């Protein structure tokens, strides 16, 4: 898994979270979280409902301000940067509950992401159809997710499963360096979850990915490293074998299932 | 859009895309009105100026989802500045208009720099507050603005040094009409540009835009400044064509009426701003002539009917009509 030599640039940590803590008033929803994602990481974050997985994503991406702790992206402290600046540095997340521009077409949703990546969102006087290479990129991404024929449909008219695919398409369009996927297959019918998993498996090899997922089959198929979060704290982190053999994890989380 | 393209829309029907068609339509409609109502040029000019103002509001509310009740701040500031500029600095109308636009953008940037960090109701209240502040300032500074009596006695030089602003208002009308057509063209380009798409994204979900990496505040500031400069230009036009600037140009009533016109016509589409303004102003004009005390009742009824039956504004009638034509053509 992470047995590569430290001098290998791929082994440098892309995301380094240490001592992360968040309390809402007296309610502590995250504490003592240390997590490192190196280039090429395929880490799964699992834990029971309400464990604080989404909260962790919100803290790292800047939606929530941590009470304490440090978050480093490519070695630089980012915990004081606004959310959008973190995204521009390559820290991208998907949403557990689909969050899209529902009155816009699928193509426009993707164009928004691509224009930001290319820093062309302040272009005033050129028609969007005339922005070079934009629609080719939209097509390329839609094809990956089998959404090619949906480009000009309004998002609100799509089935929920398809909307989940658009959510994935948006993060792909942003070409992230660190990707946090919050239950990308939640609420997706079987027919489409295969496409999502395929898209996730086809992500660039050097991208650092953290996948939050309840489906253990998916987790074991995807992850080379698993972190278990319980009540806002990391219980244990290890390889899939280590995790599936860990008695505590079996008791608390996996229960009778594994 | 600048090159004329022949597009085969389907096997049966071919149609030619005329460049600048909407702008040409605006100019033609203006010319037609000019000949039909030659003695109402003052009123026609007022409609044109108002349409420009409502267009600026559409950029904010319709395209970006920024609801404001203080857009008159920029209109009034532009009007006073254009008047004062003509009086003390230079009488040229185009330079005056430029100044009015810059002032409008400046006020938008200064006030937006703190307002645009707030949302929803707080933002709306702040927009009202800023406009009221300017209103009070203009009222206080009677020596400069003329206070209640208004600012008057400034002369505007002939347009391009040739066309004098005549008593009948011919120059004023065509001048305003041309500026409106130009602004419409710019707006049309803007809303179809990457920047315009970003505005729609902000309208839908600012948080999601942040998660896509957009510098939301900077985008909002620029849009607010563009709308502010358009409102400023509208104010400047009003000053130059009426040759009086009154306190009502900074009033809450003006902001609110513009909003009513926009909602009447339909938000988020440029034609809605034009249609809404024309209908509102004409109904206002006629109802006030019939019975000066109850014209608000007419407007109120019109607005209620529209909002209830045509939630997308009067432009929805146009959509229904187009759909109807399509069905008719298919069954042929
Ligand atoms: N804004 C908030 N204020 C107070 N408590 C909150 C807030 N946001 C989240 N929480 C609490 O933090 C805890 C963690 O929630 P979170 O959504 O992160 O869990 P999760 O692990 O993602 O669960 P799931 O698997 O159901 O998605 C929950 O107990 C939740 O009630
Ligand atoms: Mg969650």
Report the end-to-end length of chain A measured between terminal Cα atoms.
Answer: 22 Å
Structural class of chain B: mainly alpha
What do the pLDDT scores of chain A average to? 87
Order of helices and strands of chain A: EEEHEEHEHHHEHEHEEHH
Spatial extent as radius of gyration of chain B: 20 Å
Fraction of residues in H or I helices of chain A:
25-40%
Q: What is the overall shape of chain B?
A: globular
Q: What name does the CATH topology of chain B carry?
A: ABC transporter involved in vitamin B12 uptake, BtuC
Question: What does this protein structure show overall?
Answer:
The complex is a heterodimer of chains A (258) and B (332). Chain A has 258 residues and is α/β, with parallel strands linked by helices. Chain A folds into 2 domains: 1-97 and 177-258, Rossmann fold; 98-173, no CATH class. Chain A is built from 9 helices and 10 strands. Chain A has helices at 53-61, 83-88, 106-117, 134-144, 160-173, 190-201, 216-222, 240-245, 247-254, and strands at 13-24, 27-38, 42-46, 68-73, 76-77, 91-93, 178-182, 208-212, 225-230, 233-238. In chain A, the strands form 2 sheets. Chain A has a 6-stranded mixed sheet, sandwiched between helices. In chain A, β4 (68-73) and β5 form a beta hairpin. In chain A, α4 packs across α5 (160-173). The longest helix of chain A is centred in the middle third of the chain and has 14 residues, at 160-173. The model of chain A is unreliable at 1-7 (pLDDT under 50). Chain B is mostly helical. Chain B has one domain: ABC transporter involved in vitamin B12 uptake, BtuC (Orthogonal Bundle), CATH 1.10.3470. In chain B, 72% of the residues lie in helices and 3% in strands. A two-stranded antiparallel ribbon of chain B has the order 1-2. A two-stranded antiparallel sheet of chain B has the order 3-4. In chain B, a hairpin with a 5-residue loop joins β1 and β2. Classes of the chains: A alpha/beta (258), B mainly alpha (332). At the A-B interface, α2 and α3 of A face α8, α9 and α10 of B. Bound molecules: adenosine-5'-triphosphate (ATP) and magnesium ion. Residues 53-54, 96, 182 of chain A line the site of magnesium ion.
């Amino acid at each position: 898994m992470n047995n590569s030599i430290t001098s290998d640039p791929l082994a440098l940590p892309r995301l380094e979270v240490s001592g992360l803590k968040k309390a809402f008033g007296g309610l502590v929803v995250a504490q003592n979280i240390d997590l490192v994602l190196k280039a090429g990481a395929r880490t799964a974050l699992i834990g029971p409902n309400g464990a604080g997985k989404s909260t962790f994503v919100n803290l790292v991406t800047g939606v929530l301000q941590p009470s304490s702790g440090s978050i480093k992206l490519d070695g630089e402290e980012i915990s004081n940067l606004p959310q959008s600046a973190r995204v521009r540095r390559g820290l991208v997340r998907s949403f557990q509950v689909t969050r899209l521009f529902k009155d816009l077409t699928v193509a426009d949703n993707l164009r928004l992401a691509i224009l930001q990546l290319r820093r062309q969102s302040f272009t005033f006087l050129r028609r969007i159809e005339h922005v070079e290479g934009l629609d080719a990129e939209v097509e390329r991404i839609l094809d990956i997710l089998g959404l090619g024929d949906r480009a000009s449909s309004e998002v609100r008219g799509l089935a929920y499963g398809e909307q989940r695919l658009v959510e994935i398409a948006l993060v792909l369009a942003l070409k992230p360096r660190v990707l946090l996927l919050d239950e990308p297959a939640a609420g997706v019918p079987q027919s489409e979850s295969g496409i999502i998993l395929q898209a996730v498996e086809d992500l660039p090899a050097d991208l650092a990915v953290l996948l939050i997922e309840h489906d253990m089959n998916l987790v074991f198929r995807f992850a080379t490293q698993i972190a278990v979060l319980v009540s806002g704290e990391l219980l244990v982190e290890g390889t899939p074998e280590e995790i599936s053999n860990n008695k505590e994890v079996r008791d608390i989380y996996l229960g009778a299932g594994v | 859009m600048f090159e004329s393209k022949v597009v085969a829309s389907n096997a049966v029907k071919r149609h030619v895309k005329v460049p600048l068609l909407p702008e040409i339509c605006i100019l033609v409609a203006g010319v037609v009105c000019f000949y039909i109502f030659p003695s109402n040029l003052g009123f026609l000019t007022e409609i044109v100026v108002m349409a420009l103002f409502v267009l600026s509001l559409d950029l904010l509310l319709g395209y970006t989802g920024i609801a404001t009740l203080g857009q008159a701040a920029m209109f009034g500031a532009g009007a006073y500045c254009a008047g004062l500029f003509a009086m003390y600095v230079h009488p040229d109308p185009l330079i005056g208009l430029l100044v009015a636009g810059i002032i409008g953008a400046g006020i938008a940037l200064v006030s937006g720099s703190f307002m645009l960090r707030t949302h929803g109701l707080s933002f709306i209240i702040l927009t009202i507050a800023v406009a009221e502040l300017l209103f009070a300032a203009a009222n206080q500074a009677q020596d400069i603005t003329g206070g209640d009596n208004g600012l008057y006695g400034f002369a505007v030089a002939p347009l391009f040094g040739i066309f004098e602003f005549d008593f009948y208002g011919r120059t004023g009308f065509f001048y305003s009409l041309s500026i409106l057509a130009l602004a419409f063209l710019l707006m049309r380009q803007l809303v179809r540009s990457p920047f315009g798409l970003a505005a729609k994204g902000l309208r839908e979900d600012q948080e999601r835009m942040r998660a896509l990496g957009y510098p939301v505040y900077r985008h909002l500031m620029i849009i607010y400044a563009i709308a502010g400069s358009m409102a400023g230009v509208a104010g400047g036009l009003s000053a130059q064509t009426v040759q009086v600037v009154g306190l009502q140009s900074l009033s809450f009533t003006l902001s609110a009426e513009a909003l009513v016109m926009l909602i009447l016509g339909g938000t988020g589409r440029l034609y809605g701003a034009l249609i809404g303004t024309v209908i509102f102003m004409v109904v206002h004009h006629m109802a006030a002539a019939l019975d000066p005390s109850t014209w608000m009742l007419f407007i109120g009824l019109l607005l209620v009917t529209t909002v209830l039956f045509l939630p997308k504004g009067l432009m929805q009638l146009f959509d229904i009509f187009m759909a109807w034509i399509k069905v008719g053509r298919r069954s042929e």
